[in-house]
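Need a sequence for this fold. Nothing fancy.
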């Protein structure tokens, strides 16, 4: 009954959902494309074998699961891979990473008739959901059609758990319909269990984000960009910034330039629809602004470099000496600190890191990350690092070792998926 009530409310809210999608399309026109797929009208995929369906909500989840997708493509060359995302940026990443080797579709909104259409057209053998993108009707329809669902790289922060617990009558049945969960940590597993996930379906595999392997091409491109900016000057990157953080970092950078006039700032906004406004904001702080998307080449005179492209964050990280990871001053829970850590960069973050709470704390304990409480704290921490080669080197080494010491989750997750595929294939033959 609770799920039926949820369905009724979602149905009544659908015009608002469509209006919001259209509104977002003002700045990001891709939101207005392929809308029928969000209603379950998925184009026929064009394959006969039942696919492995992987759902990754946006860019972060797509990048996290990409190494697993690559392994599945190599291990099961005859088994189609279907990837769904919710955002156009996620769709763009799927296309850039895999091209025609996988099928991409937008994920339907969570109404049962949308899901019935989607599953009838795609007929997946197995569903793999990345992290915590759980929807009641999605899981209900999968269970009704006997499609096993594995929650991969699952995380459940204390904050999220409190939110789910307020809707226990909806959450518990939803979790009980999961076939298997690969949790990032004991704490994530315990919270999921307390919310209603049966303990015999829990596996603790660690975070697959530790299995990141920096692409040599990104490192090479970062080195080339560093030559253009100037190899002897200090370079700070502010990555995946949200609204409000850009100006905070620009204020800090401007103040630090009083002591380090050659300090360069690489500013990489999180969302493409903000690229133009962030570039305009940067020009209020400096006349020497260069945008990645423009034809102009950066030089040693460039003071602020705007990373206004998609899929190039790792090369921007590779260019810098020190990395600030955004989303941590915006109340959105922070973004992945393991990306700069894997490249051996000292990492700084603000107070809001609930998306990566355990990783942030562990990286801080290992000596590879400094977490600050406010703008003044960020400025102090940067003053301690800029020009201090010994301190930066120690943090860089600690960060790199921390990532290396925690690898292995991808192997464990792959084994779980292969086991589930074997069971599903056997059941299909019966």
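Here you go.
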């Amino acid at each position: 009954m609770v799920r039926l009530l949820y369905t009724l409310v979602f149905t009544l809210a659908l015009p608002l959902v469509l209006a919001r999608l259209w509104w977002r399309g003002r700045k990001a026109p891709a939101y207005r494309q392929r809308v029928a797929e969000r209603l379950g009208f998925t184009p026929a995929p064009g394959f006969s074998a039942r696919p492995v369906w992987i759902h990754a909500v946006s860019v972060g989840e797509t990048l996290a699961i990409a190494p697993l997708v690559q392994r599945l493509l190599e291990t099961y060359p005859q088994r189609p891979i279907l990837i769904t995302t919710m955002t156009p940026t996620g769709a763009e990443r799927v296309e850039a990473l895999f091209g025609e080797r996988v099928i991409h579709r937008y994920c339907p909104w969570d109404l049962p008739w949308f899901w019935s259409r989607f599953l009838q057209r795609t007929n997946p053998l197995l569903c793999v959901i990345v992290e915590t993108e759980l929807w009641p009707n999605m899981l209900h329809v999968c269970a009704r059609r006997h499609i096993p669902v594995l929650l991969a790289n699952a995380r459940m922060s204390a904050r999220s758990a409190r939110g789910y617990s307020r809707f226990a009558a909806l959450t518990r049945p939803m979790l009980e319909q999961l076939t298997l969960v690969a949790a990032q940590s004991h704490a994530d597993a315990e919270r999921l269990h307390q919310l209603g996930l049966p303990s015999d379906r829990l596996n603790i595999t660690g975070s697959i984000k530790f299995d990141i392997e920096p692409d040599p091409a990104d490192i090479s491109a970062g080195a080339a960009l560093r030559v253009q900016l100037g190899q002897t000057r200090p370079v700070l990157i502010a990555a995946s910034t949200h609204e409000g953080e850009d100006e905070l970092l620009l204020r800090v950078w401007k103040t630090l330039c009083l002591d380090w006039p050659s300090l360069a700032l690489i500013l990489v906004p999180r969302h493409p629809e903000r690229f133009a406004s962030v570039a305009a904001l940067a020009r209020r702080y400096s006349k020497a602004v260069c945008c990645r998307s423009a034809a102009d080449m950066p030089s040693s005179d460039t003071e602020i470099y705007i990373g206004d492209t998609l899929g190039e964050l790792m090369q921007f990280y590779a260019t810098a000496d020190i990395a600030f990871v955004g989303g941590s001053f915006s109340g959105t829970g922070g973004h992945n600190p393991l990306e700069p850590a894997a490249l051996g960069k000292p990492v700084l973050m603000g107070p809001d890191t609930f998306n990566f709470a355990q990783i942030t704390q562990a990286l801080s304990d290992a000596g590879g990350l400094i977490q600050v409480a406010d703008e003044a704290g960020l400025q102090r921490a940067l003053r301690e690092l800029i020009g201090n080669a010994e301190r930066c080197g120690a943090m860089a080494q600690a960060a790199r070792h921390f990532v290396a010491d925690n690898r292995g989750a991808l192997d464990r997750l792959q084994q779980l998926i292969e086991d589930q595929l074997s069971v599903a294939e056997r059941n299909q033959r019966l």
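For context: The first strand starts at residue 52 and ends at 55.
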